[in-house]
Design goal:
The protein is α/β, with parallel strands linked by helices and about 290 residues long. The protein folds into 2 domains: about 90 residues, Leucine Dehydrogenase, chain A, domain 1 (Rossmann fold, 3-Layer(aba) Sandwich), CATH 3.40.50.10860; about 120 residues, Rossmann fold, CATH 3.40.50. Helix content is about 40%, strand content about 15%. It has a 6-stranded parallel β-sheet. Helix 2 links the parallel strand 2 and strand 3. Helix 2 crosses helix 10. The protein is globular. The N and C termini lie far apart (about 55 Å). It binds NADPH dihydro-nicotinamide-adenine-dinucleotide phosphate. The site of NADPH dihydro-nicotinamide-adenine-dinucleotide phosphate (NDP) has 26 residues, from helix 10.
Length: about 290
């Protein structure tokens, strides 16, 4: 059996085209959705991500502002930058690119972002709203994965969903979204005993560990939908996921590639979240 490839590039292009149309409508009401991305330091991967986010915004007609701060900037200066953006009516979404330099407290920085502009969905009150079934912003990566599952017409109600990796930005919110959709969710971490016994039960398997190709075909239930969040660079410079694509695609029913799977969806959902933040502003202004 060879799995269907879930094409994140094509699906994200369709979502971005829809965002662009809604932006045109919003501009007619005098509102241009604006996203501010704050980048601290020189991490090369972060620079690439921020450039891609800004380019995607501009292409869809959103206003984008990138605020760059030196790696040794005092935390208080970063907090003041965030506070200024909170008060700026041209900005509807604020994102502080992670990871932050080690002298900073990332949790404190995220809590300083106004919850109604927290388009990453990482603020504690947005995490709480998601957990209690009243989401304001869904974190972009899990949100994009839900859109992929929707595009596959995956039946989530009553399905066994296994999420490998329990970070605040991917694994935990992923588990909450799957639970809200009616799946029976198992959330695994690095201490999970006999991981294969868990993953082999999964109708839907989401892997976000940062451990290259750790999930092999023999750990997958035949016909399962496999979503690979991992982005790892191999010695030859090529990207690979947390799932061993070659063996997994022989067993799975559908699978996301790396690159071209979850990555493009994450950016598309950032645009959706920013647009929706601006739409909420427009509704308040009426
Ligand atoms: P973190 O390092 O924050 O979390 C990793 C999680 O995986 C932890 O919960 C950890 O367990 C768990 N884990 C690690 N090793 C194992 C193992 N052997 N078995 C089971 N669980 C394990 O990572 P992130 O969630 O931030 O990112 C994960 C991956 O996804 C990375 O490759 C990252 O680059 C990628 N990513 C991709 C995005 C995209 O847009 N495509 C967006 C965000 C991330 P424990 O809690 O016990 O430590």
């Amino acid at each position: 059996m060879t799995a269907r490839i879930i094409d994140g590039k094509a699906l994200s292009a369709a979502i971005k085209a829809d965002v662009a149309q809604r932006v045109v409508q919003l501009k007619k009401q005098g509102i241009t959705p604006g996203l501010a991305v704050v980048l601290v330091g020189e991490d090369p991967a972060s620079h690439v991500y921020v450039r891609n986010k800004a380019a995607a915004c501009e292409k869809a007609g959103l206003y984008s502002r990138v605020v760059r701060l030196a790696a040794d900037v005092p935390e208080e200066q970063l907090l003041n930058t965030v506070r200024e953006l909170n008060a700026d009516s041209t900005i509807h979404g604020i994102l502080v690119q992670l990871p932050l330099p080690s002298h900073m407290n990332a949790a404190r920085v995220i809590e300083t972002i106004a919850a109604e502009k927290d388009v990453d969905g990482f603020h504690i009150s947005n995490a709480g709203l998601l957990m209690t079934g009243q989401p304001l912003f869904r974190p972009c990566t899990p949100y994009g994965i839900m859109k992929m599952l929707e595009s596959e017409n995956a039946v989530l109600r009553g399905a066994e969903a296994v999420v490998v990796g329990a970070s605040n930005i991917v694994g935990k919110p992923m588990a909450m979204l799957l639970l809200a959709a009616g799946a029976t969710v198992t959330l695994c971490n690095s201490k999970t005993r006999d991981l294969g016994a868990q993953t082999r039960r999964a109708d839907v398997l989401v892997v976000a560990t940062g451990k290259p190709e750790m999930i092999t075909g023999e750990m997958i239930k035949p016909g399962a939908i496999v979503i690979d969040v991992g982005i790892n660079r191999k010695a030859d410079g090529k990207l690979t996921g947390d799932v061993q694509f070659e063996s997994a695609s022989q067993v799975a029913g559908a699978i996301t590639p790396v690159p071209g799977g979850v990555g493009p969806m994450t950016i598309a959902m950032l645009l959706v979240n920013t647009l929706e933040a601006a739409e909420r502003c427009a509704e308040l202004a009426v």
